[in-house]
Hints:
binds calcium ion; binds zinc ion; TIM Barrel; globular
Amino acid sequence: MKNKIISALFDQMADIMEILGEDRFRINSYRKVARVIGDIPTDIENLLAAGQLTKMPGIGKSSLAKIEEFAGTGAIAAHQELLARIPPELPELLTIPGVGPKGVKAVYDQLNVTSIAGLKAAIEDGSVAGLAGFGDKKAAAIARGIAFLEKSTGRIRIDQALGAAELVRGFLLDVSGMLRIRTAGSLRRRVETIGDVDMLVANQAGREAGERIIQAFTDAVFVREVLASGPTKGSAIIEAGGIGVHVDVRVVPEESFGAAAQYFTGSKEHNVRLREIAVKAKLKLNEYGLFKADKMISGPIEEEIYQKLGLDYVSPLLREDRGEVQAAKEHSLPELIQLGDVKGDFHMHTIASDGNCDVSELVEAAKKLGYEYICITDHSKSSVIANGLSAKQLAQQIKQIRKLNEKAKGITILAGSEVDILANGKMDFDDELLAELDFVIASVHSGLAGPREKVTTRTLKAMDSPYVNCIGHPTGRLIGQREAMDLDMAAVIKHAAETNTALEVNANPWRLDLKDTHCRMAIEAGVRLVIGTDAHSTDGLGLMGLGVATAARGWATKADVLNTISPAKIRRWARSKRPK
Ligand code: DGT
Ligand code: CA
Ligand code: CA
Ligand code: ZN
C-alpha cells in the first residue's frame, strides 16, 4: 500500500508551503488530504482504479491528479518543485521533536538557519531565545529535542518492523522452493525497538534453491538498496510503510531450521549461556545444530535443542539473559500470559473525545475479538487538545453506556475514564463523579519534562485517590519522539502495591509503557498490570498482542494481569479500594 507514503508527501508539501509562508487555505487543504489518505484502511491504488477516490472528503481534482501522478511515476512534480525552493537540509529541522513548520519558518526567515548544525549554533549564541515568541524555555526545549534526535539510534518501532516482516513474508511465500519461513532476532523476541528485521527461510534442496530465494528477495520491487547478497544470505533496505527498513533474509537447510531459529533469535547474551551449558555437556551448539563429536543430535526442531541441553523450553520473549536459563534448568520458568487469556481491553477512546468511532462500533469490534468486556476511557476536561469530556458530558456518557450495556449481548461495557492527573496530583473530576465509574485510569499528559521529585510526587499522590484504579502509560514516553518522565519507578511501584493501584501496560507501539523491565519490577512487588490498547479506532483494539508480549517479557503470568479475569471480578477489584 502506498497510502502512508502519499500521505507523508502531502504533509511535507504542506510543511514546505508553511515555511515559505504560502496561502493558509491551500496548506490546510493539503493537510486534510494527508490525513484522509493516512486514515484509509484500503489500498489507495484500488480506490483510484475504482474511481472512488474523489468521493473521499477533501480530495479534489488537483489532489487527485497528484495522487494519479504518484501512482504512475512514483513522484509528484509539485513536491519536487517545492523542495527545490528551500535549502536541502531544512526539512531535517522538522524531525526535531517539538519543532514544527512555524518554528522552522521563524529561524529560517529571521536567523537564516538552514540546518540542524546551524540551529544548534543559534541556540548557543542566544539568538533563538531572542526571537519573538521563543524565549529561554522554548530554546532549551529545542536543544533537548536535538539532543534526543542525536541519541536516537536508527532503531524502528515494532509496528514498523512487523509491517516490513509481513511484506517480505508475503513475497517469499510465493517464491517456490520455500518450505517454511519465520521471523527471528529482536522482532521474534518482541523487543520494544528493532535494529533490523531477521527472517529465516527453510529449503530442502541445496545451494541452488537458496540462491534463487535470495535473488528473488534482492530483486523484489520493495527493495530500495541491496546491502549484501550471497548464496544463503541477503541484506537489503526495503521500503515499508514510508520508511526504509533493514531486512536480513537467511536460507537454511530444513534439517537445521530449529537450530538456526534458536541461534538467530538470540539474544546474543542468551546464546552465550546456552553454549556454556553445551560445552559443559561436551556438546557443540551452533546455527546448524547440536553436535556430539561430529554427530548431529538435534537440529530441525527448536524445542528439542533446549530439551537435549536439559532445559525447559524458553519462550523467545524471555531470551535476554535475565535469569531464564537458570530457571529453565530448575523447571521454574513462569507460565507466561498469552493473548488468548485476555478477556477484555481497559483503555480506548471514542468520538466523544479524540477517537474516531462510537461506543457501539467498539463493542462490535470487541465481540469479534471474543472479548467479555471493554472499558470506555475517554479523556477528561483538562486534556483540551484531546477534546476531553466535561463533567456533564461524562455523566451523560455513563448513562449512555449503562443503557447500551443493558441491550448488549455477550459483552459487558464498563464505564471508565482516562482522567488527567493535574499538576498538584489531584484528579481532573471530583470524587462524586469518579464514584459513578466502574474503572478509573489516571494519566499524566502535561509537564512531563518536570524534575524527578515533582513528577514522582504527582504520580504517587494520584494513587492515593480511592477512585484511581490504574496509572495510565506511567512514564509518558513516546518511542523515538519523547523521553520518559524522570520517574522514580521503584517508589511508584512500591506505592502502587501499598494502595492497591494497578499499573498500565499501554500496548500502543509508540508507548509500550510500562516497558518489560518495569513490568517485572511491578510483578515482583505484587502489583497488578492492566493492559490497554489506548485505541482511537476499532483497528487500534488489535494492538493488544504487543501489550501482552511486553508484559510477558516482564515474566507476567495470567494471575499478574487484570485483563484475564471476568468483568464482575474487575468491578469487585475496583470497588475494594473505595470507601465502604
Ligand atoms: P537488533 O537487530 O539490534 O534489534 O537485535 P537482534 O537481536 O535481532 O540482533 P542481530 O540482528 O544482530 O542478530 C540476530 C540474532 O543472531 C542475535 O539475536 C543473535 C544472533 N547473532 C548474531 N550475531 C551473533 C554473534 O556474533 N554471536 C552470537 N552468539 N549470536 C549472534
Ligand atoms: Ca535483528
Ligand atoms: Ca540482523
Ligand atoms: Zn493517555
